[in-house]
Amino acid sequence: LHHGFSSFYLLISPNNYPHFAFGWLELIVNRHFLPMLLGNELRGWPLLTQLLTEFFEFCQPILETGEAAS
After folding, report:
1. Is residue 1 within 8 Å of residue 36, measured between CB atoms?
2. How many CB atoms lie within 10 A of CB 33?
């Protein structure tokens, strides 16, 4: 189940839908999803790493320049 959600979240990542970036992050750190993901150590941590990498890659230009692009 967590693999299906993670795959879907990667499809709708901030790199694909930038205006949904912080809503997307809320989905990732949801109090039901995150414990479910981290409860499966073999598959959960790599998926979380992949999801957070997507978010930080999106944020990198903002963090480098200090301002958001329009």
Report:
1. yes
2. 19
